[in-house]
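Pinned message: reference record for Peptidyl-tRNA hydrolase
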Amino acid sequence: MKLVVGLGNPGPKYEKTRHNVGFEALDRIAANSGVTPKAKFNGNVIELGVGGEKTILLYPHTFMNNSGTSVRAALDFFKVPCESVLVVCDDFNLPIGTLRFRSGGSSGGQKGLSDILRKLGTDEVPRLRIGIGPLPQGRDVSSFVLGKFAPQERAEIDFTLDRATRAIADWIAHDLKYCMNQYN
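Predicted structure (tokens):
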């Protein structure tokens, strides 16, 4: 069993913002499944099969900075080890369009990821970072990540989200090392 966590903020106000690319990646995976999300673990959950593997898609609705509450509850319920969890999140330190798999390490300033690592008690949680940057000089981080993409950036991020969807499917079917070699 695999648990894929897409990070974002709930509600129409945050749709299509830079901070919600994790939600958008999961939306693309679930798009043709016909499965209705269930409210569970302070978020929405979609259970489906990806490449023959039971996969849980988790959208925490605790807002970004408290994502760990939802992830901890799902992890405890499904008894999934951390190496079978993939956190999909934005990263303003990476150029727009970049995908970066990592097996662990610091949160890199991503507050949702930071909360997950704190609540799980480890920094050894696989993650897929989706580049949304760079942060323009003199721009406030919060307004940048909560802002929407410019039209030319939207085209780039849509292409990147298609790649991220394939990358997540590859992580489910193969492993992290395979994905690091293919996408980093």
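Pinned by admin. Summary line: The first strand starts at residue 2 and ends at 6.
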